[in-house]
Design brief:
Layout lengths: L1 H25 L3 E6 L2 E6 L3 H6 L3 E2 L23
Antiparallel strand pairs: 1-2, 1-3
């Protein structure tokens, strides 16, 4: 089960990080975050504070859900 949670977390982080780094490259040290359902552009130095109170990296439009399907091994203690 831990491997399943880790796989989902890694996938979510990689999708979210794409929006942050893309914005940082194009906006002179600024990044976009989804704040209360609205996309705002902030200084990169303020990113951790926003993430700390539940904002998401990237624009609100970039927020995507991914479905990860993993097959469990027959003995139940691993992922195939």
């Amino acid at each position: 089960m831990n491997k399943l949670i880790l796989a989902a977390a890694v996938l979510n982080a990689s999708i979210s990080a794409q929006g942050v780094f893309a914005a940082n490259d194009n906006n002179n040290g600024k990044v976009s975050v989804c704040h209360n359902g609205r996309t705002v552009t902030i200084n990169a130095s303020g990113l951790q504070g926003h993430l700390g109170h539940g904002d998401s990296p990237g624009s609100c439009e970039d927020r995507r859900s991914a479905v990860v399907i993993l097959q469990c091994a027959p003995d139940g203690d691993g992922i195939v």
